[in-house]
Fold this sequence. Notes:
Distance between the termini of chain C: 27 Å
Low-confidence stretches of chain B: 1-15
Mean pLDDT of chain C: 88
Shape of chain B: flat
Mean pLDDT of chain B: 81
Largest sheet of chain B: 3 strands, antiparallel
CATH superfamily of the largest domain in chain B: MetI-like
Shape of chain C: globular
Oligomer: heterotrimer
Strand order of the largest sheet of chain B: 2-1-3
Radius of gyration of chain C: 22 Å
Number of strands of chain C: 13
CATH topology of the largest domain in chain B: MetI-like fold
Order of helices and strands of chain C: EEEHEEHEHHHHHEHEHEEHHHEHEEH
CATH architecture of the largest domain in chain C: 3-Layer(aba) Sandwich
Radius of gyration of chain B: 26 Å
Structural class of chain C: alpha/beta
Helix content of chain B: over 70%
Number of strands of chain B: 3
Amino acid sequence: MKHSDQHADRRLWIRSLLWGLLLVVCVMGIAHAEGLFRWLEPDARQVIYQRAQFYELLGRHLLVVGVAALVTILLGVGAGIAVTRKKGRDFLPLVAQLSSLGQTFPPVAVLALAVPVLGFGTLPIIMALMLYGLLPIVRNTLAGLHAVDEDIKMASRAMGMTPLQTLYQVELPLAAPVILAGIRTSVTINIATAALGATVGASNLGDPIIAGIINGNMAYVVQGALIIALLALTIDSLFEGLQGRLRQRLSSSQRLS
Amino acid sequence: MSLLDALPTPKLRRGGCPNAVLASLSIVMLAVIWGMDAVSVAPNRIVQGTGVDVLGAIGLPGALLASLLILAIGGLASQPSRTNYAAAMGVVVLLLALMPFGLMVASHFLIDPTLPQARLGIGASYWLILFILLLCLIELRLRLALTRLWPVLILTGVGLLWWLCASLWLDDLALVQEFNARDRQFIRAVGQHIVLVGVAVGISIVLGVLLAMLMRRFRRLQKSAFAMLNFLQTIPSLALFGLLLAPLAWLAANVPVLAQLGVSGIGNTPALIALVAYSLLPIVRNTYIALEQVSPDTLEAATAMGMRRGQQFWQVRLPLALPVLLEGVRITTVQAIGLTAVAALIGAGGLGTFIFQGLGQAAMDMVLLGALPILILALLVDAALGALAEALRPGGIQ
Amino acid sequence: MIELSQVSKRFGDETAVDDINLKVAKGKFCALVGTSGCGKSTTLRMINRLIERSSGDIILDGQALEAYDPVKLRRRIGYVIQSTGLFPHWTVARNIGLVPRLLKWSADDIQARVDELMALLGLPIEEFAHKYPHQLSGGQAQRVGVARALAADPDILLMDEPFGALDPITRIKLQDELASLQSRLHKTVVFVTHDMDEALKLADHLVVMRDGRIVQQGTPLALLQHPKDLFVESLLGGLERGLKQAALTRVKDHMSSLGPTLPSQYRISADFSLRQALSMMLRDHTDRLAVVDQHDVPIGELSLRKIVKEAQLEKGSMREA
């Protein structure tokens, strides 16, 4: 059984490697594939998006999503931990309710509402991504910590672990798969929402699509869409690999998931 | 929902510690009300408005009244009891009800009636107070252990009051002006949005349930079908819309029959295809789980009692599966409402049009005109379908 | 040495433990017995301060419980619970080594201690050290639970229905092993159970609880002979009480020396209990058994008449005392 697990694990990593490779090939190769796109859009003046290099757009996209993800993970997991401790327990019902209600807010609406408050540009995007991406992480942190067996927590206290030791050595490792799933959801949504950021003045992989739609240039649209899709698939498969790795280490995960 | 149901419900503590949540929320509200701009005034639609603080907007008496009411919430929460919580709830509702009147006072003070284009914008503190008051409402509902119906009723009442105020007396409000300028368009957009969502969800329910049943019949299908649906769900919406544009445009250009049927690269066709593609996963997953989770013991008992297969399906399997299935429909619909907004980019219409037009023209009130109804629509659908699923859950089982 | 005096615990309006007095001498095995919800687990958890008592005093080795830092206190007290509470993400070896690691022992010392404990509890190291809790049977998991509790060689061991979730055969096996461990290690044990047979078998001191109060306490034999009321008597098995008492008595304490008559053809080992002897008599339709030593050599005789008579005498003498 263990053997087949490892096998599946390796297959996951190979898959994410393949998506990543395809992403790199597209980012580097689109500029040289003029013939292909000319066939798609024979009458256009240009068929390759020129305003910025694709790797620049990819870099900016990753930066925005990365910064937002880093902050949300710290804040979200922190908040989830804080409200499940003795001192913050008062806030637990409200935070739990809010994080579940927040799933209802459409990301587009959140992004649109952020602009009047924060203005145009990259910063409002990062803020909107952070606000929105926080909720799945908080929610899953709460769910994960909540799922840790009461008896196990009691046993760790009874053995003489300090609250901090219980948190780091018992609760967080056991909740990790659920928390990671929340981070995966958050990042997936954020990659998609960041692309919409092109409409509020951020320059990223959404740009070619928006420009293509406005100018009626299908070639641009396809270029942008292809790269975003590959980026999303690469990142998502990386998370899947990470989850597989975690599940393997945490042999008990079937009890928790 | 299951997480929330599992959480310990907060108990009313007798005479015990003050409620830290409401106390901190009221402190934050006080800071917001005195520290941020309440409204903004602009001479016309495009110019960025200038901010006005609370004293300028509703004067010292108004500011003191608001602060007093906010303090009352924190004060009542410092000695928690059922009556005090109920009173705090009353204060919250009162504050919500007073908010449009504050705007009226502000427009009376600040808007020069001789300037027909002048308009009042709602400032950051107004939005934040509104948001925090809603948090207070949630917290109080939880502490008083009220059903979900209560906040819905309260907010419906408050919403009607706001709408009344807006349509009768708040002509200077930028949002209202924006609405008045294109009320026909707005109503059409709401209609389009709802129709798009409804059709997409309807198609996905039919397809999704069929697919789930096929997956139960042909087990080998299961893995690849779920992998495919997960794959689709991972692709960002903008990219999927984009990727559908090109082939559909090609089809419309080269297959005249399809073009006659209304297929084109831009518009409803790619929007519907993408919406259905996204909607399938939650529906299929929940249907599959719902049908699968019915315990074999229950089914064996049904067989043993002499139920036929058809009877088993209609009388045992379906009633037990229905709440989970509805949960899938809820997730799908809420998701589709958001995604339809993105579809406006490829010309599908709907409320997203206002968002993207507004962003293009830097007209923030127009953005709000699109974003707010989308948000409200999503919350309404979520509450309605959630309540329906709860009502259908026999005997409160999970 | 653990001493509880006038200890109470109230949860809101509910009194879970009501004014109990209890003394457990060093090296003794004390069992708390009662129906569920009688406050026995709460009493146990007040000793390692998992639950803080509402009133009363608890003295541990001559010092008030407050004098100890709760975390350090718990590292000195072993704790075993019914659901084992093993950490599912750690191997057996790491689980057992938990407290020594908390106490910052060196890696070699921890390793040596884990090996020693696994041997002590009959868990072959090569087979079990790297397994995870979910790969163990109920009995194996509870052995690991006991090993973990013993890891830092605590003087005191608290056990909360440790064998309650096991099948009867495994349970009896683990009870026997615990008894033999205790005869070697002489820990001060407080053991919570609702299984009276388990308590009678293991305890030096038996405490019967009901609705948060102690109804009766004493040696198992004393309780069997003089249950205070109907509740204690029914808990002790009602009509079966005589047999349970017989189970606590060794054959060698009641045998008479070999007489002039031929020894009976039915033989019983001197270490067996009187209950087993009675059972043999019933099975083999005899009222006399020959008692043999471990080499199967007759060393005495046991007769039904004598057992009954001595039981009468014992009861009489107890009453006078």
